[in-house]
Design goal:
Length: about 425
């Protein structure tokens, strides 16, 4: 196949895999909204809330490497269909849960949906030539916008659906209606993927052993790409589930308003991913990642500044009481949202740039390498909310959320710069300088 040729059926793979991933992503992160009425219903503590919003992210991470390899070996279409069937069953179980422990177990199972990312990456990489992979993977990755679905419709449906549900309670009311709605949508998506995507599927890993497909993981650059993805994707997932609570707790907003403002972060972080892929195809991932990390550094620094003022102790003869406040600082909801919007823009472009690296360096191992990068990135999405809750409980400063992200981003920027510096100072020719 010529590098500029696109095989018949590739566009159907891209469109339907993106639609399926959008839905699976919505199912995966539904607890970002559901956990707020659940917290009120069950009287959850701060850490219980963090675990409920994070446990699905954990299970949406740990199988990415394995499922990426399976997609290359057995065909991504089969793997995605099985994953959607399992997710539909888990989502129904969520609607039947009545205790925190039961909900936690069901939320863990719903997390299977998050693993659809590595399957879709392998699927699109197998069907598109190298010259279009950045755009195709960026388009597919825009399915991250599914994180906004529950944010937009969840609060409205929770309020609109009668608490008794429909058909004598067969369809539940309140927050339990949301996971049941997703069951119906998943069944529809299963039929669409089954009937309208091309068969037979492409299987670039067919005939290779599991050990052979794991060999690329010995390269340090794979782990470097994974750290990048923790910041541009793991932090995106974490903020998608954490921001509604942040808006409610810090700014006192109603849930529906907090959810809407969160979508102003989710939309650019998702919909700019095709632009990031297009730019990566033309100028390379290196320059993009430099720009992304620098923008994030500025935004995270501003967001991490705690509200308050500096207190000076002076003689009481100068100031009654002996104390004087100076440099008061607080950030209103408008500038906060503007900075969060810019963070979303940078993350959307950065996610595509990271995955431009994968098929470029490892064209025959996209499933394994993409699976590991996605796994570690998504694990960041699991660990970060727990870190936010732990450090926030210790410091009582909600802005420590962004202090954590500032430090993680700084580590990525330093590693990227050191890598580029070493390559530019090595005598490996101009070609090596571009592909570091």
């Amino acid at each position: 196949m010529n590098d500029v040729e696109t095989p018949k059926g590739a566009n159907r793979v891209m469109w339907l895999s993106t639609a399926a991933f959008t839905l699976m992503f919505a199912v995966w992160l539904q607890f970002g909204i559901l956990a707020i009425p659940i917290r009120k219903e069950l009287g959850l503590t701060e850490m219980q809330f963090a675990w409920l919003t994070s446990i699905a992210i954990l299970n949406g991470s740990i199988w990415r490497l394995l499922l990426g390899i399976w997609a290359d070996r057995f065909g991504a279409k089969k793997v995605l269909l099985l994953l959607m069937v399992a997710t539909a069953g888990a989502s129904w179980a969520v609607s039947q849960a009545r205790t925190f422990e039961h909900l936690l177990a069901c939320a863990f199972l719903v997390g299977l949906a998050g693993n659809s990312f590595s399957v879709g990456v392998a699927w699109n990489s197998a069907w598109f030539p190298k010259s279009r992979q950045g755009l195709a993977l960026g388009f597919f990755g825009a399915g991250n916008v599914g994180a906004s679905v529950t944010k937009l419709v969840g609060p409205l449906l929770i309020a609109a659906v009668p608490s008794a549900g429909y058909f004598g309670g067969v369809i539940s009311g309140g927050w339990r209606f949301i996971p049941q709605m997703y069951v119906g949508l998943l069944v529809l998506m299963i039929l669409l993927v089954l009937l309208f995507t091309p068969s037979p599927d492409r299987r670039p890993g067919a005939g290779r052993t599991f050990a052979q497909m794991l060999q690329p993981l010995r390269y340090v650059r794979v782990w470097r790409f994974s750290l990048y993805y923790v910041v541009v994707f793991g932090a995106y997932v974490a903020l998608s589930v954490w921001l509604p609570k942040y808006y409610v707790d810090v700014y006192g907003l109603e849930l529906k308003n907090a959810a809407f403002l969160t979508t102003l972060f989710i939309f650019p972080a998702s919909l700019l991913r095709p632009l990031g892929g297009w730019l990566a195809d033309r100028i390379g991932a290196r320059g993009l990642m430099y720009g992304v990390f620098m923008v994030l550094a500025v935004c995270f620094f501003g967001l991490s500044l705690p509200f308050g003022h500096i207190v000076f102790y002076v003689p009481e003869s100068y100031v009654p009481g002996g104390t004087m406040a100076a440099l008061p600082f607080s950030m209103g909801v408008v500038p906060f949202t503007i900075l969060i919007f810019l963070v979303g823009c940078a993350m959307g472009i950065g996610k595509a740039a990271v995955f431009k690296y994968v098929p470029e360096y490892f064209p025959k191992d996209v499933g394994a390498v993409g699976g590991l990068v996605g796994l570690l990135g998504a694990l960041g999405g699991f660990c970060l909310p727990l870190t936010f809750a732990s450090i926030g409980s210790l410091t009582k400063i909600p802005q420590t959320t962004f202090m954590v992200l500032f430090l993680a981003n700084a580590a990525c920027l330093v590693w990227l710069h050191l890598t580029v510096w070493k390559m530019l100072n090595a005598d490996q020719g101009p070609g090596a300088r571009r592909h570091f």
